[in-house]
Design goal:
The complex is a heterodimer of chains A (about 280) and B (about 1000). With about 280 residues, chain A is an alpha/beta fold. Chain A contains eight helices and eleven strands. Chain A has a nine-stranded mixed β-sheet. In chain A, a hairpin with a 4-residue loop joins strand 10 and strand 11 (about 225-230). In chain A, helix 3 (about 80-100) crosses helix 4. Chain A is globular. The termini of chain A are far apart. With about 1000 residues, chain B is an alpha+beta fold. In chain B, about 30% of the residues lie in helices and about 25% in strands. Chain B has 28 helices and 41 strands. A seven-stranded mixed β-sheet of chain B has the order 18-20-17-21-19-22-23. In chain B, helix 9 packs parallel to helix 22 (about 725-745). Chain B is globular, with a radius of gyration of 29 Å. The two termini of chain B are about 45 Å apart. The chains are: A alpha/beta (about 280), B alpha+beta (about 1000). Chains A and B meet through helix 1, helix 2, helix 3, strand 6 and helix 7 of A and helix 2, helix 12, helix 14, helix 17 and strand 25 of B.
Chain lengths: ~280, ~1000
């Protein structure tokens, strides 16, 4: 089946605008808002059903950014992300390898993170939250860029982000990694985000790491920072009104309140990576 | 061959997953499958050998009973088929189960333990001893073994009236002399059917009788709302509900206001204008009877079922928000109740029902990627026999769809055409959910069928939903669509057949979960996740290809005709042939009578002394008042990135009374949702119960920033013993209040539903008969569009120094208030002890008589002024005063902001000087707001003509102080109040 959206006006080739493929199907469900976030920041995003990509695997070579959005692929049956990753690997292993070998970016958000750990392109695994319950709330995060020991940019995704507050919504976000691997991750600056007690946790008096992730890890990197997996949802923080602090903030200084949310920076970074490509040739 | 794969966590496992695989897969293929089921970092797998189990005495295997939907099993089958490149018809069946390891003293102890782990109505449990760290489970498959039956049974209606009554009540007598389960048809209906078939000079077949029973069921026909009642000739619905909407629409047009109603009462959901480009839809359903038997399954099918009502609106709306409402018995109540005298069918306890229902909505909503935003939870001992589970869905659909040649089509209009294929899409048909529609139309007792229980599969539905509302709809591949809900295909096909004048179905083409179902079962089964579509023949190939590529099953099961008949064939033989006219309009009209109810309740004694600190704290801790963050937090309310006013708000995370979201991401327009019900008020007056519910639902919306002129409402009547003229009198009163209040505010009804027999008849542990009826419950849901969502006002206090005002008047209306209910619970109050479960309409209760009354004229002015103040962004916070009165509203605003306050209630406006009244009366029309000092002047100017009392200010410290003149009547602190407010919720974590 042809993907109708591929032929829509937004897919007209543009030299400056990077092209983004957002995977869908089998219960993934955050593809539309993720597309909106990428397009707001100047990308051209197409939502592509996994079966359409399987039917035309070469399609992947037309894109610069690959996105596994959040959702509930296969209802988390047999373990979150497993079944979707298996299907992807089973049909698209070669194309994925080719994609990752180019100067491309990849992100997995929430269920997408679970999928790409199962694909084996990110280290570690995600399992049931420590209290066994699904949880939707906001968390505070620091990035490896934010820690004083690292001065250089570790990932295009994290440019100019030292700390950030975003919402989580998951039942299996408990990150697990063996001690040896953890040391390696630290050494290579592969830890993208750690849960921390910041603005939101202090505001609502919440614990910093609600799912029990080892070493407070909320997101990890691979492929020189080009592949990012994260449990929190940046696309649910693209407008200021999405933040729990917004109602209070807007009574204090209306002028200072921007309509844009803090999460949009992650999408901007990815789009700008390709827009400013010449300047930005790191990682090669 | 049958193999078993175990997947077990690596460290200190207390449970394992098991997959029984019935197939001809090779060992190598099984290993490959096992690998994909295992995350090697976390788990190990074992094939046909026991995993090593830690130090436990017993293992309990919990699996499904034969025929119950096994969602994980389906997924594994899909994984295996894809990975091993299996042919479509490759024989492979997967049965999943969970194995729990426990330490117990012997088998009996283990069995006792297991009762909390499974529901014997849908699951099976097997106990084995763990010997030297190993378990030995038999590879026995829960295969459906169907009794052989006659495929078509003619039913003779040339019988006595007694036999007709029996057939109607207990079902058709099958060839083994067993009754097949309730048709819920009364004598006059049976006689009408008898007459119809005698005019055709033949007997009906079983499928014809079952089909009529579905279409004529109270659940589908809403006979109580349709029939003439007292002197109301056109019935309650036409006269008062639709009547109100018609009048409001007319008035709006006459006044030059926008009539935003587009599709009301005619489709699966109600549709109103959102903006120039989109419609929004809303629908709220109940799923009470199934939730009583299997709380998880009942609730999940409730929510995914109402999602389908959205997908089935017009040519298919996208679900964009879920709502819920729960009414449970007291979770501390552990008295056993039984459905049968022999005490074999034990009722689930309220706590168990609550946990299952909460989880069902969790899985249904979260898995579907629909934010579950808005909801409430209520407790009353009278929900012990039947809980109420409300589930609602808001949808979004473009107003116009393009069809070929650049032409546009209105999206809410649909019409199956003669010659279109009848296509069933989604899940397959099984025995699950047979007699659901007829079952929910009667009292629950020992004859309630277990097959009425279903389990939803949100992922099958998500695939179906996405492929319809995100692709096929916009490709113009079908002409009409509806949901398969109550009555299954028998209802959906017959409904759609109205659009063109007839239908013909071939039963053998309908895909089944397992072989051996009888035609009548296939026709009325309510198996989940199915939609019926009419697909033009020339579009079928394209439609089929699309569905296939999305992993969705679509099958042609017949054709729409203009024969004036619904015809069903089975293997070349006509087995159903009924005139559409008789099917849809043949149900005999009944005349209903009511008897007025006069209730004289007793008045509880008020507490002595000046201080109300303790009683306020106690009231805040009542489950009907305190927070339920544990529910809000486990429901994904932020998916679709639309969240504006969340279910929990502020520093102190109080539950909001209305929620706001952004359905179209590039528009600043917001949608506001709220709901309200006051079942206790019905103990005094059902008229006031209804008008207060409307007033509160509307007020909640205005208080957060919604627009009165763009606000629609929905009704859900959950009644009891609706054949009792006294209960019908209460119903008429409530419906009249709906009419009057809706017109008063100009807020039209756009959709509604009723469930009229929420009664339980059973036995206690001594074998004494027990009957419990719910208090008549009316849920009003409201939906509004706000022009600029950035003007949202949340309920909690924001900044110290802000001035606190109360809009509206406070009167002596403590009757049936949460405060009175608390006083009654406290010991030593009044000598008369009344049975809280007494369920006659006129039973006197200890709840007083002065129930809140709605003053439409005054409240309307207040709401319009409030709307103006919010549009001018003058408010820092705004909270609608509801259950628990001013005292509780003030407490919630303070906890929300984690800020103290200093209040003097002396100047509160209204008709009483009594502190109890000022603090706890639940008078309607009131809003508690706080205003920054820099805005007070402008605010007070807007409120000049409105009852508006300046009562105090928000303070920086932790102190919560209320004065009545010079007397300090409440003195406590925010930390303490916060702990009380969250205590119940924290205990449920």
């Amino acid at each position: 089946m042809k993907n109708k959206k591929l032929h829509s006006h937004s897919s007209v080739f543009s030299a400056k605008k990077p092209r983004i493929i957002i995977m869908s199907g089998y219960g993934l469900n955050c593809e539309e808002e993720t597309k909106f976030a990428f397009e707001t920041t100047g990308g051209i995003a197409n939502i592509v059903h996994i079966n359409d990509l399987i039917a035309k695997p070469k399609m992947l070579s037309q894109y610069q950014i690959l996105v596994f959005p959040g959702g509930f692929s296969y209802g988390d049956d047999t373990g979150s992300g497993k079944a979707y990753a298996n299907k992807f690997k089973n049909h698209l292993e070669k194309e994925l390898e080719e994609f990752l070998s180019r100067d491309t970016l990849t992100i997995g958000i929430c269920n997408g993170f679970q999928i790409i750990t199962n694909l084996g392109i990110l280290p570690g695994a995600l399992t049931h939250n420590k209290n066994g319950k699904y949880i939707d709330r906001w968390v505070d995060l620091t990035t490896s860029t934010g820690s004083s020991s690292v001065s250089k940019e570790v990932s295009p995704w994290l440019k100019d982000i030292k700390s950030i507050s975003l919402p989580i919504a998951h039942g299996e976000g408990h990150y697990v990694v063996d001690p040896k691997k953890y040391k390696e991750l630290e050494k290579n600056n592969q830890i993208a985000f750690k849960y921390t007690k910041g603005e939101i946790c202090k505001f609502q008096n919440l614990e910093k790491n609600p799912n029990g992730s080892e070493h407070d890890i909320a997101g990890v990197l691979a492929y020189n920072g080009r592949v990012l997996g994260m449990m929190p949802h940046p696309e649910r923080a693209m407008f200021s009104h999405q933040s729990p602090l917004w109602s209070l903030d807007k009574t204090r200084d209306k002028q200072k309140i921007k309509k844009e949310g803090i999460g949009l920076q992650i999408f901007k970074n990815a789009v700008n990576y390709f827009k400013n490509h010449e300047k930005n040739f790191l990682g090669k | 061959m049958i193999s078993r794969i175990y997947v077990i966590p690596k460290n200190e496992a207390t449970k394992a997953d098991s997959y029984l695989i019935d197939s001809k897969l090779s060992k190598k293929e099984l290993v490959k499958l096992a690998q994909t089921l295992t995350n090697p970092i976390l788990e190990d797998y074992f094939i046909d050998e026991s995993p090593r189990v830690g130090n436990f005495s017993h293992a309990i295997e919990i699996g499904f009973l034969p025929g119950v939907t096994d969602n994980v099993g389906h997924t594994v089958k899909e994984i295996a088929t894809d990975m091993l490149h299996l042919k479509k018809n490759f024989s492979l069946a997967v049965y999943t189960s969970k194995i729990f390891f426990i330490n117990s003293h012997g088998l009996e102890d283990a069995q006792k333990h297991s009762l909390t782990l499974y529901n014997p109505l849908i699951e099976r449990a097997l106990f084995v001893e763990i010997k030297s760290g190993k378990i030995d489970l038999p590879n026995k498959i829960p295969e459906v073994v169907l009794r052989k039956g006659v495929s078509i049974l003619p039913v003779s209606l040339s019988v006595s009236d007694e036999e007709l009554i029996k057939i109607g009540k207990e079902g058709i007598l099958d060839e083994t002399n067993l009754r097949r389960g309730p048709l819920a048809l009364d004598l006059s209906s049976m006689q009408a059917i008898q007459k119809y078939f005698s005019s055709l000079k033949r007997n009906p077949t079983d499928i014809e009788l079952e089909s009529l029973a579905q279409t004529w069921s109270e659940h589908c026909k809403h006979t109580i709302f349709a029939n003439e009642i007292d002197d109301i000739k056109d019935g309650l619905y036409k006269t008062y509900i639709k009547g109100a909407t018609n009048l409001i629409r007319k008035q709006k047009t006459e006044r030059g206001q926008q009539d935003f109603c587009v599709s009301v009462f005619s489709d699966n959901a109600g549709g109103i204008i959102f903006d120039e480009d989109y419609l929004i839809t809303h629908k709220v359903e109940t799923h009470n009877s199934p939730s009583a038997l299997d709380p998880f399954g009942g609730a999940i099918t409730g929510i995914v079922g109402v999602n389908r009502d959205t997908i089935g609106f017009g040519l298919g709306a996208k679900p964009i928000a879920n709502t819920y409402g729960f009414c449970f018995g007291n979770p501390e109540d552990t008295r056993p109740l039984f459905r049968d005298k022999e005490q074999k069918q034990r009722m689930l306890l309220p706590k168990r029902i609550m946990e299952g229902v909460v989880k069902g909505i969790n899985v249904g909503g979260n898995c579907s990627g629909i934010p579950t935003l808005s909801g409430f939870i209520k407790f009353d001992d009278r929900y012990r026999g039947k809980p109420l589970v409300f589930a609602g869905t808001v949808g979004l659909i473009p107003r116009n769809l393009s069809i070929h040649g650049g032409k546009k089509q209105l999206s809410h209009e649909k019409q199956a055409r003669v010659g279109d294929y009848i296509v069933m899409v989604g899940g397959r048909v099984g025995l699950d959910g047979i007699h659901g529609a007829t079952f929910s139309s009667v009292t629950m007792d020992s004859t309630s069928p277990a097959t009425a229980v279903q389990i939803g599969d949100p992922i099958t539905q998500k695939k179906l939903s996405d492929s319809i509302v995100k692709e096929a709809r916009d490709m113009n591949l079908y002409t009409s669509i509806t949901d398969n809900g109550a009555g299954g295909l028998s209802c959906s096909v017959s409904e759609m057949a109205k659009e063109c004048g007839g239908a013909k179905v071939f039963i053998e083409k309908i895909p089944l979960k397992y072989p051996g179902l009888l035609p009548w079962e296939i026709w009325i089964s309510e198996s989940q996740e199915r939609m019926t579509l009419s697909v033009p023949k020339n579009k079928w190939k394209m439609f089929q290809k699309l569905m296939e590529s999305r992993g969705v099953e679509a099958i042609v099961i017949g054709e729409f005709t203009n024969s004036g008949k619904v015809i069903v064939q089975y293997k070349g033989k006509k087995i159903m042939d009924i005139d559409m006219e008789f099917l849809h309009n043949g149900l005999p009209k009944h005349y209903l009578n009511t008897t007025p109810v006069i209730i004289k309740n007793l008045e509880p004694a008020l507490p002595k002394g000046l201080s109300r600190t303790k009683v306020l704290e106690k009231l805040l801790g009542e489950k009907n008042i305190s927070g339920f963050a544990f529910i809000s937090e486990q429901y994904d309310h932020e998916v679709q990135a639309s969240s504006v006013l969340k279910p929990l708000s502020g520093r102190g995370r109080i539950n909001t009374d209305s929620q706001i979201f952004r359905p179209v991401l590039n528009s600043n327009k917001g949608v506001v949702l709220s709901s309200s019900s006051y079942p206790s008020y019905g103990d005094i007056s059902s008229y006031d119960m209804a008008s207060c519910a409307l007033d509160t639902a509307i007020r909640n919306i205005i208080a957060s920033g919604g627009t009165l002129s763009h606000l629609a409402i929905l009704d859900n009547f959950c009644w009891c013993s609706s054949n009792d003229p006294k209960r019908l009198y209460q119903l008429v009163e409530a419906v009249k209040a709906c009419h009057d209040t809706a017109i008063g505010y100009g807020t039209p009804f756009i959709s509604g539903k009723d469930s009229m027999f929420n009664d339980f008849k059973g036995y206690d542990e001594k074998g004494n008969p027990v009957s419990i009826s719910i208090p008549p419950t009316l849920l009003i849901s409201a939906i509004s569009v706000m022009p600029d969502l950035y003007k949202t006002v949340s309920p909690e206090f924001k900044n110290s120094g802000d001035i606190i005002y109360l809009l509206g008047e406070t009167h002596d209306e403590l009757g049936a208030s949460e405060y009175y209910k608390l006083l009654v619970k406290q010991e030593g109050n009044n000598a008369t002890h009344l049975d809280p479960l007494r369920c006659e309409a006129s039973s006197a209760r200890l709840v007083g008589n002065s129930v809140p009354k709605v003053n439409l004229e005054k409240n309307l002015k207040t709401y319009l002024a409030l709307e103006k103040a919010i549009q001018k962004e003058l408010l820092a916070s705004s909270l609608s005063v509801t259950s628990g009165g001013f005292g509780i509203a003030l407490t919630k605003a303070s906890i929300g902001g984690m800020l103290g306050c200093e209040i003097n209630i002396k100047n509160m406006l209204g008709g009483s000087n009594l502190a109890d009244v000022k603090l706890f009366s639940e008078s309607q029309g009131r809003i508690l707001v706080s205003v920054s000092p820099k805005n007070t002047k402008q605010f007070e100017r807007i409120m000049q003509e409105i009852p508006c009392a300046k009562l105090g200010k928000v303070t920086k410290n932790d102190k919560f102080v209320i004065l009545d003149g010079k007397d300090k009547i409440v003195e406590t602190n925010i930390k303490k109040l916060h702990a009380i407010y969250h205590k119940f919720s924290n205990s449920q974590q």
